[in-house]
Write a structure and sequence with these properties.
77 residues
Length: 77
């Protein structure tokens, strides 16, 4: 079985009904599950702001994942 790059943990939360409906509508509009929509919005809130270049951030994440997987997939000596 392949290892996951990151482990997902369930989080229980209560949302006001109006916010839940709005998230549901936006998720559908963006062709995402509600879970993916929530993750996307949370990540966006942490990485948005002055001095954050999203493309550079994506490139750094891509390089880190590539290094991780090359280490994981390296044949045993």
């Amino acid at each position: 079985m392949a290892r996951k790059a990151e482990e997902l943990r369930p989080v229980m939360t209560r949302l006001p009904e109006a916010l839940r409906r709005r998230l549901e509508r936006e998720a559908a509009r963006n062709h995402r599950s509600m879970n993916t929509e929530i993750i996307h919005r949370l990540e966006d809130s942490f990485f948005r702001g002055p001095g954050v270049d999203r493309q550079t951030l994506r490139d750094e994440i891509r390089l880190a994942l590539r290094a991780f997987w090359s280490e994981v997939m390296r044949p045993a000596p």
